[in-house]
Amino acid sequence: MAASRSSLFLILSLFLLIALSNVAEGYGNAKLRPSDCKPRCTYRCSATSHKKPCMFFCLKCCAKCLCVPPGTYGNKQVCPCYNNWKTKEGGPKCP
């Protein structure tokens, strides 16, 4: 009885892990449509006090990369193009 419960728990945990990994993958790595850029960038720039430049560069980066990292800061490794686009000085171009 205990073995069947633990195997059932293991199977359910595995399905949950797969479902969550698909959600995470769909958020960052999947190619966005250009119409998806504005809402994603609005959320990405919601915590900054420099909203206009943040939105300008986020929309520019999203149009090129078709990806916006999740959250309001960091997580750029989810979008390699977004993460690797640099300014002439070598700083990050995308917020």
UniProtKB/TrEMBL annotation:
<dbReference type="GO" id="GO:0009740">
    <property type="term" value="P:gibberellic acid mediated signaling pathway"/>
</dbReference>
<dbReference type="Pfam" id="PF02704">
    <property type="entry name" value="GASA"/>
</dbReference>
<protein>
    <submittedName>
        <fullName>Gibberellin regulated protein</fullName>
    </submittedName>
</protein>
<comment type="similarity">
    <text>Belongs to the GASA family.</text>
</comment>
<keyword id="KW-0732">Signal</keyword>
<keyword id="KW-0939">Gibberellin signaling pathway</keyword>
<feature type="signal peptide">
    <location>
        <begin position="1"/>
        <end position="26"/>
    </location>
</feature>
<dbReference type="InterPro" id="IPR003854">
    <property type="entry name" value="GASA"/>
</dbReference>
